[in-house]
């Protein structure tokens, strides 16, 4: 899979995650929020809680190398946490309740992707 295919699949996975959360009643506040330290895939609100969502995707073939959620390294967790701190500071929400979730999207053969939601993932 080339770089453009990976980017397209990533956008597709983020859309699936956004649709999933919206169906659960979450409000999507930001998509692909960027700053110098990194990018937040989705920033959502669940009641009074700001939810920082890391979206990971894999094809069913790549699942042999682990689940999408297993692809999150300690370095990535630190980057997401650091970027979230910048977002919360810039938006004046440093005292907000914050949760870090992972949405893992696995693509099968021509079927709808499987979405796994891991609350309080890190």
UniProtKB/TrEMBL annotation:
Molecular function in Gene Ontology: nucleic acid binding
InterPro entries referenced in this protein's UniProt entry, alphabetically: Restrct_endonuc-II-like, tRNA_endonuc-like_dom_sf, UPF0102_YraN-like
UniProt xrefs under Pfam families: UPF0102 (PF02021)
CDD domains: PoNe_Nuclease
Superkingdom classification of source: Bacteria
Family membership noted in the UniProt record: Belongs to the UPF0102 family.
This protein's name: UPF0102 protein EHV15_22275
HAMAP family noted in UniProt: UPF0102
Organism expressing this protein natively: Paenibacillus oralis
């Amino acid at each position: 899979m080339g770089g453009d295919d990976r980017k397209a699949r990533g956008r597709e996975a983020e859309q699936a995650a956004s649709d999933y959360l919206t169906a659960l009643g979450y409000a999507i506040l930001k998509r692909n929020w960027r700053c110098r330290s990194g990018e937040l895939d989705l920033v959502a609100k669940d009641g009074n809680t700001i939810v920082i969502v890391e979206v990971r995707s894999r094809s069913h073939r790549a699942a042999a190398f682990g689940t999408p959620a297993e692809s999150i390294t300690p370095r990535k967790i630190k980057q997401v946490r650091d970027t979230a701190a910048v977002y919360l500071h810039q938006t004046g929400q440093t005292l907000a309740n914050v949760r870090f979730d992972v949405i893992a999207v696995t693509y099968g053969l021509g079927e709808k992707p499987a979405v796994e939601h891991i609350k309080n993932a890190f």
